[in-house]
Design a protein that fits this description.
By secondary structure, the chain is an alpha+beta fold. The longest helix is centred in the last third of the chain and has 10 residues, at about 225-235. It has helices spanning about 10-15, 20-30, 145-150, 190-195, 225-235; strands at about 45-50, 55-60, 65, 70-75, 80-85, 95-100, 105-110, 120-125, 130, 180-185, 200-205, 215-220, 240-245. It contains five helices and 13 strands. The two termini are about 30 Å apart. Strand 11 (about 200-205) and strand 12 form a beta hairpin. The protein has a six-stranded antiparallel β-sheet. The chain has a four-stranded antiparallel β-sheet with strand order 11-12-10-13. It is about 15% helix and about 25% strand. It is globular and about 55 Å long.
C-alpha cells in the first residue's frame, strides 16, 4: 500500500474542514449517539478513511452488523493505521483506538467480535469518511482496489449477539454516548439556522422520519441541558420537543 504520510492539520484548519460533531468526536473524544449516525447501516463496498487526514482505516470487507448502532469492524485495513491506548474513562477499563497519522479519536476495540479475529472495532461515524470502490483510484486509494476485484477478503458474516451489544444483567455496556439527540417541533428554517449557533449544538438536520416541521438536533448535554435547549427553541418560535432515547447498546 502507499506510504503516504497523513499529518494532522492545525486546529484552525480542522475547525474549518470538519463539522462541529466531527470536531467534537475526533478532537475531544466525544461519542456520537448510536443509530443516528451516517455509517452504522452502510452496506456499500469501499474503505473508510480518517475524516481529518484521509488516512485509510477500515474496509467494508471487514464490516459487520454488531447491533450496537455504530459502525463495527473485525480489523483495521492494515497494521499501523489504527493505534490503541488504555482508556479509564466512565469508570471502566477499555481500549481506545485512534488514527496513527492524525491522532483522531475513533472509538474503542473489544474482544466480543465474530471470527476470524474475535475483535469488534466500534467506531464513530463522525470520525470517518467513506470512499466507495468506484472512487478509490480517483481519490488516491487505488492500491486497495484489488481487494474488492479479486475478492481476497470475504465479507464478515453479520452478528447481532455480541456481549457488548447485549450486556449481561447488571453489567454496563462497553460505552455510553456522550452526545444526545433531541427532536424539536415547530419553528422553521430561520429558527433552525439560529439554533446552529447555540453553544453545545453540534448538528441540526431535518427529522429523518419526515414529520412536518420537525428537526433533529445533536447536542452536548455537558454544554447545554435539554431544558435550556428546549427553552431556546421555544424562544425562536418552536413549539416543543423530546429527547430521543436510543436502545441500550455498547460501544
Amino acid at each position: 500500500m502507499p506510504t503516504h504520510t497523513y499529518a494532522k492539520p492545525s486546529t484552525v484548519e480542522l475547525k474549518q474542514k470538519l463539522t462541529p460533531i466531527q470536531f467534537e468526536v475526533t478532537q475531544n473524544d466525544a461519542t456520537e449517539p448510536p443509530f443516528r449516525n451516517d455509517f452504522w447501516d452502510n452496506h456499500a463496498a469501499g474503505i473508510y478513511v480518517d475524516v481529518a487526514t484521509g488516512e485509510p482505516l477500515f474496509s467494508s470487507l471487514d464490516k459487520f452488523e454488531s447491533g450496537t448502532g455504530w459502525p463495527s469492524f473485525t480489523r483495521s485495513i492494515e497494521p499501523g493505521h489504527v493505534v490503541s491506548k488504555s482508556d479509564g474513562a466512565l469508570g471502566m477499563s477499555r481500549t481506545e483506538v485512534r488514527s496513527s497519522g492524525g491522532d483522531s479519536h475513533l472509538g474503542h476495540v473489544f474482544d466480543d467480535g465474530p471470527p476470524p479475529t474475535g475483535l469488534r472495532y466500534c467506531i464513530n461515524s463522525a470520525s470517518l469518511r467513506f470512499v466507495p470502490v468506484d472512487r478509490l483510484s480517483a481519490e488516491g486509494y487505488g492500491g486497495y482496489l484489488s481487494r474488492f476485484i479479486a475478492g481476497t477478503a470475504a465479507p464478515i458474516p453479520g452478528s447481532t449477539a455480541n456481549a457488548c451489544a447485549k450486556p449481561k444483567p447488571g453489567e454496563r455496556p462497553g460505552c455510553e454516548a456522550t452526545l444526545d439527540t433531541a427532536l424539536l417541533e415547530g419553528g422553521g428554517a430561520k429558527a433552525a439556522a439560529s439554533l446552529r449557533d447555540v453553544a453545545g449544538v453540534l448538528d441540526v438536520v431535518p427529522d429523518p422520519m419526515n414529520r412536518v416541521a420537525a428537526i433533529q438536533v445533536v447536542f452536548d448535554p455537558k454544554q447545554i441541558a435539554y431544558a435550556d435547549l428546549l427553552a431556546k427553541w421555544v424562544s425562536l418560535g418552536g413549539k416543543g420537543g423530546e429527547v430521543v432515547s436510543p436502545p441500550s447498546v455498547g460501544h
